[in-house]
Design brief:
The chain is an alpha+beta fold and 162 residues long. Helices cover 16% and strands 31% of the residues. The protein has a domain of 111 residues: Protein of unknown function DUF952 (ADP-ribosylation fold), CATH 3.20.170.20. The radius of gyration is 16 Å and the shape is globular.
């Protein structure tokens, strides 16, 4: 799978605390902050563009209880499920937090409109990240990708699972 492409107009605004003057009105909230939109968007329910969220999970964890929504440990520990807004960010997070994790590492592509839990876009390290304040509904998963790693365990690319 190639890079997930996003709206080039959004990228500069996701990495700042306030939208600069002249930012497109569609990308700025009433408070003058960048609208919490990821770099990747695809047509979702009803043919409208909806943000797609990305979540890292080990295959064994994802497969453990397929009849229930997925609730990662961070939900109990921190009160939300960590997600990322785009492919470069998810690969960086895979490299940082899962480099030494054994087994197959997956990326769940989530349609934000299908999630039953609230999604809050919150700043961390100068970037807005989507945090799902509840479990991940399996019917919100639109694709499951695999993180391809190099010999040193570094995350290199996302590939479709066949």
């Amino acid at each position: 799978m190639g890079q997930i492409r996003g709206d080039a107009r959004v990228e500069p605004y996701l990495r700042v605390g306030r939208a600069p003057r002249g930012a497109p009105a569609s990308l700025v909230s009433r408070r003058g902050r960048p609208r919490p939109r990821p770099l990747s968007e695809t047509a979702g329910a009803g043919g409208r563009n909806v943000p797609m969220l990305l979540h890292l999970v080990l295959l064994d964890d994802w497969s453990a209880d397929p009849d229930r929504p997925y609730a990662p440990p961070s939900l109990a520990d921190e009160g939300f499920t960590h997600c990322s807004p785009d492919e470069p960010t998810i690969l960086a997070n895979a490299d940082t937090y899962f480099r030494d994790a054994p087994g197959t590492l997956l990326v769940l592509v989530l349609d934000e409109a299908r999630l039953r839990s609230e999604v809050r876009w919150e700043e961390s390290r100068g970037v807005l990240f989507p945090h799902v304040h509840g479990p991940l509904d399996r019917d919100a998963v639109t694709a499951v990708l695999e993180v391809r790693r190099d010999a040193d365990g570094r995350a290199r690319e996302l590939v479709s699972r066949s």
